[in-house]
Write a structure and sequence with these properties.
This protein is about 50% helix and about 15% strand. With about 475 residues, it is of the alpha/beta class. The protein folds into two domains: about 5-190 and about 275-330 and about 450-474, Rossmann fold (3-Layer(aba) Sandwich); about 350-430, no CATH class. α14 runs antiparallel to α16 and α15 packs antiparallel against α16. The longest helix is centred in the last third of the chain and has 44 residues, at about 390-430. The mean pLDDT is about 90.
Length: about 475
């Protein structure tokens, strides 16, 4: 959204910042309090967000946050407008398969959550803490205390606990953190508007989808539901459906008036989907920019009309930084294998060595055999009568046997070397390109155990307006 639009809009700044202040104190993020004061006054916000991944989730979450912090600083410097960075911990999501893993090259840590559609915000943190304790047992003593500080926190609910980890990682940078649950009471009237305008919302998304289709762009939301969920007292997140003119939650039917009354009584139980969340964000938070990944960037293309429906502007979409990290061990192994850092994106199959001797060697072997054969023929011609055919033939057989022994030994050694190189490749690619980009898989704590100052290095290296893929030795 333009700064002019934000300045002319009415945001619930005081109510928002009171909630942010309370929440950030509760997760030990006192370093964000000055930024919250700025937001309470007239600062604009650069927002990014992600599901509550175990131990912060894949690396791209870290890159999103760094991009947002540095973009906020750039806006403040260039536009002379106070700006803050906000991380939206999407803890209302109930797809637990997306949050319960922390992937390391040789190990997957998995927190066992009840897979019953429970919103992450309502989960107990106990199982996550147990997995983290198992991980901490593997951390080298030199860095253990620092890593423990980053991962050991008091909150008993998983939402706050995961926020505490992000707060610890970025404590030096004034990052404001929120969970959507703290915004719902503030957004009560907007949530009611989402109900009363639900038909218009769906029409907007359907017409946008049709327009994208004419541009050969597949829409993210082709058969949109209401975009609303209800979280019950057990934390189960249930879709609010529209059946004709009435709404339903599981087997319970509601008229529009009854659903509005339900929201009036307790707005904190109403949760939004992927297409309504950005609207709620922009109506409650003065969002100048949203730092997105490729998937989010795509679905925002469908939301412009929806933003217009609610008299707000879609925020400026800024692509997150992309990077691949290399520890010293990975760099050395790449050099041994003669592989450039940028070449890893070709995938491991491009470098796998076959066990068979290459054709160039086989060709030389055949040449050698032919040369010996010619030498035997010359020997037989010149001294065959004196030495006798049996002597020449015996010599030829022994010579051929030795040649084949040498060939077999060379083949075996070549195979051993290739297996060694292939094993090294397997280990390398589990770290650098594990069935896809590293940033979509590997957890940052794998690299923090090698360099506890990695966040500082990334903050110094990544630039928000650089579109290249960074190759960073850490």
């Amino acid at each position: 959204a333009s700064i002019k639009h934000l300045n002319g809009s009415d945001f619930p700044r005081q109510e928002l910042c009171t909630a942010l202040n309370t929440y950030n104190k509760s997760i030990g993020n006192n370093e964000a309090l000055p930024a919250i004061e700025k937001l309470a006054d007239n600062a604009v916000a650069v927002v990014t967000g992600q599901q509550s991944g175990l131990m912060s989730g894949p690396l791209y979450t870290i890159y999103k946050i760094i991009t947002s912090i540095k973009l906020a600083a750039a806006i403040e410097s260039d536009k002379k407008v106070p700006a803050v960075a906000i991380y939206w911990n999407a803890s209302e999501d109930h797809d637990l398969s997306e949050i319960q893993h922390a992937l390391f090259p040789e190990k997957r840590y998995t927190a066992e959550f009840p897979n019953e559609g429970i919103a992450a915000e309502a989960l107990d943190a106990e199982n996550a803490k147990a997995e983290i304790a198992a991980f901490l047992e593997t951390v080298p003593d030199d860095f253990k205390e620092k890593i423990e500080t980053l991962l050991t926190h008091q909150p008993e609910k998983y939402g706050e606990f995961s926020s505490s980890i992000i707060a610890a990682l970025f404590k030096d940078y004034g990052l404001i953190i929120l969970e959507p649950k703290i915004l719902r009471p503030i957004a009560k009237e907007l949530l009611k508007e989402f109900v009363s305008k639900n038909s218009a919302i769906r029409s907007s998304l359907e017409s946008s989808a049709a327009r994208l289709e004419t541009l050969s762009i597949s829409a993210a939301f082709t058969n949109p539901a209401t975009g609303l969920f209800h979280i019950n007292t057990d934390g189960k997140r249930r879709q609010i459906r529209l059946d004709g003119k009435n709404f339903s939650i599981d087997e319970n039917a509601y008229t529009e008036a009854e659903l509005l009354e339900l929201i009036d009584r307790d707005a904190s139980r109403i949760s939004t989907s992927a297409f309504l969340r950005p609207v709620l964000q922009s109506k409650i938070i003065p969002t100048v920019a949203y730092v997105a990944g490729p998937g989010e960037y795509k679905y925002h293309l469908q939301l412009k009309d929806l933003f217009n429906l609610f008299d707000t502007e879609i925020p400026y979409l800024h692509m997150r930084n992309h990077a691949t990290l290399f520890s010293g061990a990975e760099t050395r192994n790449l050099e041994k294998l003669g592989i450039g850092k940028a070449d890893i994106f070709r995938g491991i199959e491009a470098f796998y060595q076959k066990a068979e001797l290459p054709e160039s060697y086989e060709s030389k072997h055949r040449d050698t055999e032919n040369q010996f054969k010619a030498a035997i023929e010359s020997l037989s011609k010149n001294i065959g009568e004196l030495a006798g055919d049996k002597v020449i033939q015996g010599f030829e057989k022994r010579l051929n046997d030795e040649i084949q022994k040498v060939h077999k030994r060379a083949s075996k050694e070549y195979q051993r070397q290739q297996e060694t190189d292939n094993n090294r490749l397997d280990k390398l690619f589990k770290t650098l390109y594990p069935n896809g980009p590293q940033e979509r898989n590997i957890n940052i704590f794998y690299f923090l155990t090698k360099n506890p100052d990695l966040i500082r290095l990334l903050m110094e290296t990544l630039e928000p307006n650089e579109e290249r893929h960074y190759l960073i030795e850490c």
